[in-house]
Amino acid sequence: MLTRFFGTSKPLAVVLVFIYMTLGFFYSNREQFVTPFNWQEVIRLVGMWLLFISTMFILNFVAQKNDLTKRSTYGVLLFAAFSLSLPVALKDGAILLAGFFILIALRRIISFKSELYMERKIFDATLWILLAALAFYFSWLYLIAIYLGLLLYNISNPRYLFIPLIAFISFTVIYYSFLILQAGAPADVTIVFESVSFDFGAYNKVKILIPIAFFIALMLWTVWKYLGEQRNASSGSKSRYSVILGLLAVGLLVIALSAHKTGAEWYLIVPVMTIIVSNFLEHTESPIFKESLLWLIVLLPVFINYIA
User: Fold this and answer.
1) Long-range contacts of range 246-249, CB-CB < 8 Å, 24 or more positions apart?
2) N or C: which terminus of the chain carries fewer CB neighbours within 10 A?
């Protein structure tokens, strides 16, 4: 039933996912409704919801435009379900903002394949990643993805290698100037560099451990199939598969090195995971297995919120 309904591109399917996301988001933030009314909190919550919804629409646009998935609505449904399985992320405005900026940057990196307007794309991608780093510090590691994109798409113009550095210097000058204006004097400016941490203690909570364990198991299964699809793909499409896998690897590196692990950081790999799992569903021949897996994914947020 789900596979048949979401297996094609239907406006009604997107509307239903929109409602599913909205209900799930506000349920995850239900604590806000038992506190005294505060306009600032309302504006903040609505802003977080808009970021969440906008990320879904941008991901769908990127996947369809770059032929990362077929013309189905699996992508929007999977993004919604994976995200709602991480209620801790939906309460974290910084993570939602970082995820939004990173997705825009990944859109630019994936489009390197056309080799059009490369200077602008590389510069833009760097700026978006640095903006994401202001919200979630270790997002800066996605700068690696820019060089991975150039390498995997076999773009060898040496001039492109220096554009991220130029963008970084430009961003740093502007940001530092803003800090001086805010602090009043250069001596009063404080810049904090977070250290690497391998403390995964927060993952001991059942409501965080279950979705992460599910994500890991699902990725191990679907990435293997994704590699098989890459081997059978045309020579022109193989690099696109490699870029997606490279983006997943960078995302996992960000998660592993993050200083403050809460489980919310897994939200950053949800878009890439969505693309890989969507491909898996689109190429799986067993209708019973596909239907069962999709139901399991959709109901996972319900179970997580139930035990929360």
Assistant:
1) 246/145, 246/148, 246/149, 246/152, 247/106, 247/109, 247/145, 247/148, 247/272, 248/219, 248/223, 248/272, 248/273, 248/276
2) N
Residue type (1 letter), 271:
P
Mean pLDDT of the chain: 90
Q: Say which amino acid occupies 31.
A: E
> Could you tell me which of 133, 160, 138, 166 has the C-alpha nearest to residue 148?
160
The burial class, CB within 10 Å (0-12 / 13-18 / 19+), for 200 is middle
Q: Which is it for the CA torsion 149, 152, 153, 156, positive or negative?
A: positive
CA 163 to chain centre: 24
> What gap in Å lies between CA 255 and CA 86, rounded to an integer?
14
Alpha carbon 11 to its chain centroid, in Å, reads 23
CA 226-209-196 angle, to 5 degrees, is 85
User: Computed from CA positions of residues 221, 4, 9, 48, in that sequence, does the dihedral angle turn out positive or negative?
Assistant: negative
Which of 138, 154, 142, 250 is closest to 192 using CA atoms? 138
The answer for residues whose C-beta is within 8 angstroms of residue 193's C-beta and 6 or more apart is none
DSSP letters of 11-49? HHHHHHHHHHHHHHHHHHTGGGGSSPP-HHHHHHHHHHH
DSSP 107-138: HHHHGGGG-SSHHHHHHHHHHHHHHHHHHSGG
pTM above 0.85, yes or no: yes
Report the run of H or E that residue 68 belongs to, with start and end.
none
pLDDT surpassing 70 at residue 55: yes
Residues 150-177 have pLDDT tens digits of 999 988 889 999 999 999 999 999 988 8
Locate 228 and state its tokens. 């098989």
